[in-house]
Amino acid sequence: MCVDPSIVSHAGAVHSRWRELNAFTFLDPRFEQRFDAGTGGAWPAVEVPAAADRAPLAGCQIVVKDNIDVAGMPCTLGTPALRYHVAARDAAAIARLRAAGAQIVGKTNLHELAYGITSNNAAFGPVRNPHDLRCFAGGSSGGTAAAIAAGLVRAGLGTDTGGSSRIPAALCGIVGFRPTVDRYPMAGVALISPTRDVIGPMGRTVRDVAALDAVLAGASPAALDTVDLRTIRIGIPRQHFQEDLDASVARALERVVSTLREAGVTLIDADLENVAAADAAVSFPIVLYETKAALGAYLAGTGSALTLDDLYAQIASADVKEIIGQVIGGAIPEPVYRQALTVHRPALRALYRDYFAKHRVEAVLFPTTPLPARPIEGSDRVVTLNGVDVPTFATYIRNTDPASNAGIPAISLPAAPHPPRNAAAESLPVAVELDGPAGTDRRLLAIAAAVESVLSP
Predict the structure, then answer these.
(1) Cβ(115)–Cβ(192) below 8 Å
(2) 363/210 Cα distance (integer angstroms)
(3) In which band, very low, low, confident or very high, does the pLDDT at 38 lie, cut at 50, 70 and 90?
(4) Residue 2 phi/psi, 5° resolution?
């Protein structure tokens, strides 16, 4: 996982503009010096304890989204009220990574309070897409995605509530993973929805992500199984997931489906019936109800006297301030939340479980987002899709949100191979997502690695 000559070979060009990306809220000074000098490469030499030379992540540098505690580093959540908050101890997941030999390079910028999908942060500045600095990197884990896509590191951590690791991965052209809910320990993470939130490993390849997954899950590191694509059945839902796609996304999906069919994958055209309505009954009722208590609990754990009202008063991003105002004001009544949690969420999970069983498929495949990245300027509220202004947040999470609410594993892969880049619409990355049954994380990663091998040989 720790060597990639293709990155090192162009390290100078990449690192010379690392500041322009605005991917970091905090960077270890040793790496800052190397990046400025353009000599750090993708994996700068670091001191690794002698006992770590046999550890699975020995010598590997990763970045961590700035809503996950790393001892001695700021944990700002991308919001002004916590600008000077320094974590006293590692989150449980970080402790596992360190024990495996990993080194934390720095903390990455995000959509303020992890409540958005552009990472246009009014307090710390926008994260810029390495493929076009005028465009957003996606969110809320935009800084992690941008740092990996630019070759600064090979892997890192985001978090994912409704798509926050998969959306920026898709828009920046890397791999983003959402594990089955409760697969990784979440202590020391600033949550906005304990029911839905997970840590989301991100990397340049599926195997990079799989290496982090094994450590985060507390499993004995093992290579992914080799999957023969000729034995795999994948569902292709059209309803909801393929509606109103940007032309570049539609073309990429067609190429991916054709490539998989040629590789021998059995593709099953079958819809997840009424998935949009089932998802809507779960999504916002749960997250908007849980955020108030979740953020309050994190603030209490910092040991400061900071209250949720203090946090709200200093929120810099207008879109985030509006929604946190609704949260504080009790936008979701408790009976609505309880019904979402105990009735609608089990129904959504059953919808997926029955789909996988009925069609005998191990995964479903669809575009991760309906459109590629858009310019930062003017995209906080709406973006243009097929000539129509549509809501930014709802449009980008449309395809990623159902798996989040069902609690199942999901992974976003670059939708390579790309055609010649002879049009602006084809110059930005697009991606496909694979969702699998709950608890099949390693199997889904193995399938994704096999798919990746034919999409990006």
Answers:
(1) yes
(2) 17
(3) low
(4) -100, 5
Close Cβ partners of 243 (under 8 Å, ≥ 6 residues apart): 370
| Measured distance CA(70)–CA(27) in Å, rounded | 12
User: What is the token pair recorded at 93?
Assistant: 């997941």
What's at 96, amino acid-wise? Answer: R
CB 79 within 8 A of CB 113: yes
Structural Rg of the chain based on CA atoms:
20
Higher pLDDT, 225 or 33: 225
Q: Delineate the domains of the chain, giving CATH numbers in brackets.
A: 13-455 (3.90.1300.10)
Cα–Cα separations (whole angstroms), residue 457 to 76, 202, 266, 427? 39, 20, 20, 20
Rounded Cα–Cα distance for residues 63 and 215 (Å): 15
Strand partners, 235: 268, 364
Q: Is 40's pLDDT higher than 60?
A: no
Sheet containing 155-160, strands listed edge to edge, beginning at the edge strand earlier in sequence: 24-27, 103-108, 61-65, 155-160, 198-203, 175-178, 410-414, 431-435, 363-367, 233-236, 266-269
State the Cα–Cα distance between residues 177 and 317, nearest whole angstrom: 27
pLDDT tens readout for residues 334-380: 999 999 999 999 999 999 999 999 999 999 999 999 999 999 999 99
CA dihedral 186, 147, 138, 441 (to 10 degrees): -40
State how far the Cα of 152 lies from the Cα of 62, in Å rounded to an integer.
9
pTM of the model: 0.93
Catalytic residue annotation: 65, 140, 164
Contact between 129 and 171 under an 8 Å Cβ cutoff? The reply is: yes
Which letter does DSSP use for residue 141 in this model?
S
Question: Which spans in 173-218 are helix H?
Answer: 206-216
Q: d(Cα 455, Cα 111) in Å, to the nearest integer?
A: 30
The amino acid at 257: V
Distances (CA, A) of 330 to 38, 196, 298, 322, 334: 49, 19, 19, 13, 9
Residues 293-322 have pLDDT tens digits of 999 999 999 988 999 999 999 999 999 999
Among 223, 221, 236, 315, smallest CA distance to 268 is for 236
Q: Assign 33 a pLDDT band (cuts: 50, 70, 90).
A: confident
DSSP class of residue 341 equals I
Question: Which two structure tokens, joined as six digits, stand for 303?
Answer: 């040991």
**CA–CA distance, 273 with 270 (Å, rounded to integer):** 9
Strands 132-136 and 128-129: antiparallel
Position 53 scores a pLDDT of 52
Render pLDDT for 409-438 as a digit per residue (tens, 0 to 9).
999 999 975 444 444 445 799 999 999 999
